[in-house]
Design brief:
single chain; 506 residues; alpha/beta; Helicase, Ruva Protein, domain 3; Arc Repressor Mutant, subunit A; 3-stranded mixed sheet; 3-stranded parallel sheet; 20 helices; disordered N terminus; binds glutamic acid
């Protein structure tokens, strides 16, 4: 016999049971490895496109609230809309979660695999008189609607089949939930505060379509009960669904979870964030060269703050986050801030971590990282100089593959006969150098400048154009270091040939 409030030790994650017995559900207190789990959150996307930034932020908040409370984070794919859901979108969601590093503890669960369970609960509600078959035709419903509008009433189902006794032949009925006719639904949203809706505002919701397929407001409740979700975090576009769902919880005799409806994200221009604002899919940010650490940090600050702190590692977020501190006002996207964070993380994360992400861009660009400096060395030099990993890849091509031609303007300006002696001397010294450290390279260039009596600029720029093909690259010692010995010697040789070939006939 289990007593209320007692900790129940489960040997497997709870959702592995497929359905938690009613017995366990009454207690809502679980234990994993000896520690009580009281917070269970979930992210429940519908796979009808990519994982967009709004969804990713909801996922992040749900993840953080679970982690901050030693809880469990569940991923559930709400794929019952067979026409709009597709496997590519499921994959896009999984890829997005994976790239962001939002690890879930249970799932992914697929609603399409739970149809028998929804049918079972529908039958239960029907047999208890808490749901009923509705045979109303579309035409009848449309007429009722028109009539209600004429009278200035809010259109809603008029309850025609609620207590109907006759069963019309040849009609596949829908199943409607018998919503209470009076009273109020009251709940305390963790973000929005107290919310109260009169049942007179709500009508009898369709929970199963004529073909038996269940609808969103019903499946979400069955799942959240079965998966013992204790806190539902979702976008505030769902806030009107919540009172309906609460009535279903009550009809099923289940305890209510807590709810937290997070505000939407707006574009820079104040309109709801959409494709027209540019990237809205999480993976597009990867493609554009952002680090997941930067995007996560950016997303957590959209609607949540902790003093005036701007930079949060995932560990910091877990330590500081509480859903109760989320702002109820919508927050606006700000690309400049994201760029700033991206650069911050490129500079401050361990270079090998950044290099791991850079590798993806190299592969996409067809660059072989084996043909040049270690990517972590590259990151150490380039992180300060670019805003994104995409940009880093583009400006670093020259360290992995030869450039076609010198930039015409830079060559005209710097690859001239006056530069020839310095380039020749440097080439010689470099060829004889033991080792290839930046300090040694720097020393050689300074020594040659002194010996030939020319200033550094007169040496560095021709050398830079010789090595990089353009007049822009990191400091000259670092450029040499990245280009590497063999390639540097070859490229200086090529520059010398270029100078000679263009020198006026003697
Ligand atoms: N599947 C719903 C959506 O993607 C979310 C449902 C929920 O979180 O309750 O909008």
């Amino acid at each position: 016999m289990i007593h209320s409030g007692e900790i129940i030790v489960l040997r497997e994650p709870i959702s592995q049971f497929g359905r938690v017995s009613e017995h366990l559900l009454k207690f809502r207190l679980f234990c994993i490895d000896g520690v009580a789990v009281t917070v269970r959150t979930r992210f429940a996307p519908s796979p009808t496109g990519f994982l967009h930034v709004g969804g990713a932020r909801t996922a992040l908040f749900s993840y953080l609230e679970a982690r901050a409370n030693n809880g469990v984070f569940i991923l559930r794919i709400e794929d019952t809309d067979l026409e709009r859901s597709n496997p590519e979108s499921v994959q896009a969601i999984l890829d997005g979660m994976n790239w962001l590093g939002l690890e879930f503890d249970e799932g992914p669960f697929y609603q399409t695999q739970r149809f028998p369970r929804y049918a079972e609960v529908t039958q239960q509600l029907l047999s208890q008189g808490k749901a009923y078959y509705c045979y109303c035709s579309k035409e009848r419903l449309a007429n009722v609607r028109v009539e209600q509008m004429k009278q200035g009433l809010k259109p809603r189902y008029d309850g025609f089949c609620r207590d109907r006794i006759d069963i019309p032949a040849g009609i596949q009925p829908v199943v409607r939930f018998r919503n209470p006719l009076s009273g109020d639904v009251v709940f305390n949203d963790r973000v929005r505060g107290a919310i109260s809706i009169s049942n007179e505002e709500l009508d009898d919701l369709v929970i199963a379509r004529p073909d038996g397929s269940p609808t969103y407001n019903f499946t979400v409740v069955v799942d959240d009960i079965d998966m013992a979700v204790s806190l539902v975090i979702r976008g505030d576009d769902h806030i009107n669904n919540t009172p309906r769902q609460i009535n279903i919880y009550r009809a099923l005799g289940a305890d209510l979870p807590k709810f937290a409806h997070v505000p939407m994200i707006l574009g820079d221009d104040g309109a709801r964030l959409s494709k027209r604002h540019g990237a809205v899919g999480v993976m597009q940010y990867r493609d554009d060269g952002y680090l997941p650490q930067a995007l996560l940090n950016y997303l957590v600050r959209l609607g949540w703050s902790h003093g005036d702190q701007e930079v949060f590692s995932l560990e910091d977020m877990i330590a500081c986050f509480s859903i109760d501190d989320v702002n109820r006002k919508a927050s606006a996207f700000n690309t400049e801030k994201l760029d700033w964070l991206n650069q911050h993380y490129m500079r401050t994360l361990p270079p090998d971590v950044v290099a791991g992400h850079l590798l993806w861009h190299f592969t996409r660009a067809g660059l072989d990282p084996g043909q040049g400096p270690a990517l972590s060395d590259l990151v150490a030099v380039q992180a300060d100089r670019v805003k994104t990993l995409h940009e880093m890849t583009e400006v670093s091509r020259i360290y992995y593959t030869d450039f076609e031609e010198f930039d015409a303007g830079a060559a005209k300006k710097h690859l001239r006969p006056v530069a020839e002696p310095a380039l020749r001397t440097i080439r010689e010294r470099l060829a004889g150098l033991q080792g290839w450290k930046t300090e040694q390279l720097d020393e050689i260039i300074h020594a040659v400048a002194v010996e030939l009596g020319v200033n550094m600029g007169k040496i560095a720029q021709p050398l830079r154009v010789a090595l990089a093909g353009t007049g822009v690259s990191p400091s000259i010692d670092k450029t040499l270091w990245l280009v590497g010995r063999e390639r540097s010697l070859r490229r200086i040789e090529r520059a010398l040939e270029y100078i000679v070939a263009r020198a006026p006939e003697a």
